[in-house]
Amino acid sequence: MTHISTSHITASVANALQYISYYHPPDFIESMSRAYEREASESAKNAIGQILINSRMAAEGHRPICQDTGIVVVFIKIGQSVVIDGDISLQNAIDQGVRQAYTDPDNPLRASVVSPPIGERRNTGDNTPAVVHIEIVTGDTLEITVAAKGGGSENKARLGMLNPSDDLTQWVTDTLPGMGAGWCPPGILGLGIGGTPEKALLLAKESLMAPIDIDQIIADGPKNPIEQLRLNIYESVNRLGIGAQGLGGLTTVLDVKILEHPTHAASLPVAMIPNCAATRHIHFTLDGSGPAKLPTVDLANWPQIAAQTGGRRVNLDTLTPEDYRSWRIGENLLLSGHILTGRDAAHKRIVDRIQSGEALPEGVDLNGRFIYYVGPVDPVGDEVVGPAGPTTSTRMDKFTDTLLEHTGLAGMIGKAERGAAAIEAIRRHGSVYLIAVGGAAYLVSRAIQASRVVAFEDLGMEAIYEFEIKDMPVTVAVDSTGASVHQEGPRLWRKKIESFPVRVA
Hints:
Layout: E1 2-5, H1 6-22, H2 26-38, H3 42-61, E2 71-79, E3 82-85, H4 90-102, E4 114-115, E5 122-123, E6 131-137, E7 142-149, H5 151-154, E8 158-162, H6 168-175, E9 187-194, H7 197-207, H8 214-220, H9 225-238, E10 253-261, E11 268-275, E12 281-286, E13 312-315, H10 321-324, E14 332-341, H11 344-356, E15 370-372, H12 397-407, E16 411-414, H13 420-429, E17 432-435, H14 441-445, E18 448-455, E19 464-478, H15 485-498
Parallel strand pairs: 1-3, 2-6, 9-10, 13-14, 14-15, 15-16, 16-17
Antiparallel strand pairs: 2-7, 4-5, 7-12, 8-11, 9-11, 14-19, 17-19, 18-19
Helix pairs in contact: 1-4, 2-3, 6-9, 11-12, 12-13
């Protein structure tokens, strides 16, 4: 019998969550570096470069790669000969580790978990509870995989109940464009095939924990039907031309992972879950000798890349409608001046006040201003603000027309595409929509010179802040004519890729 203390589980989980908040897995860095070198799309290469620069900065500074530090998911395989010692449950031991990691004063992580999920949705304040999956196996150790999964990629999970004769590769390539770019490609696709619907989803999530090895399969050739299917999907998806951040390019996915399970003869459940550019997971084993010893990180694994933040400088404090209505999609800008922030909860409160005839809070004057969709991490030391990358903008689409019509809002900054109704509202009101790179939160935060809460402080990270920024890098994603870079970029690159050899990545 192996005796493992709950205190060692708690310490291991806490250390692991801090570790993965600022260290990308080495295989991810290697794969992203290869994608950067071969990328032919200037916009996509710029985005991948920012992600890699941000990753190195986070590793050096021990600060979060992304402001969305995720909901914690833990896979545990408990050996049948293991005895867990302690006066708290395994779930509570894990949750204590989560609590310690997310409230660490040296590197506080953003608390994003709300309870209950329907109704008040109050933030739990420490990112607990974790989602824990337990399997009993033979042996005398605890095998633990800890992941922190961001909402942008989790929201893109898909489940299909296919017919056994259906083409799975076709289902993936038909389904993936509808996921948009809110999952921050390039990343990894996880597929769970078989079992029952809930089993397929669990397999898809667990498949994302495996190392990236698609280049080895390409080099050696597929050795079994699953490797062949992975390669087929990998090539088919990359031929869609979606590219980094959905801007159009050669690499949309870095790898495709598959786990399978026997299923009913009449069924073919298929689940698909993406991992974003803030891929965060680590595996370790506890054998009773103490907390896990995590790998030493070699910063030489990160490539040396020149700054990817060029563009025309814009002073938002003196900007006129004529100025921003002259911008066109794909144009890179460096923004300086003052902006307000706001996410889902703040948008709902603003729209509720507008519709009820109430005045907006003091300091929330949106006329002629830009709003940034962000929920930053708390600052440490002399930081003005912690990592502050953009959140997925489509969640604000339902509020866009009302804000543009009633507040005089000039433009919005977020990540990924906008829906048809939001684009039409932007066109009709002569507004613009800009994107910052998802997965480059620490890099973006360096552009923020001052920060203060102006409204809805009770919302925590979803409060409305005013940021003073200098040279914040953005790209025009929807211009005042209603053109969208997320439509035009992939369309252009899909045509280019059609003339390429079969393998494009």
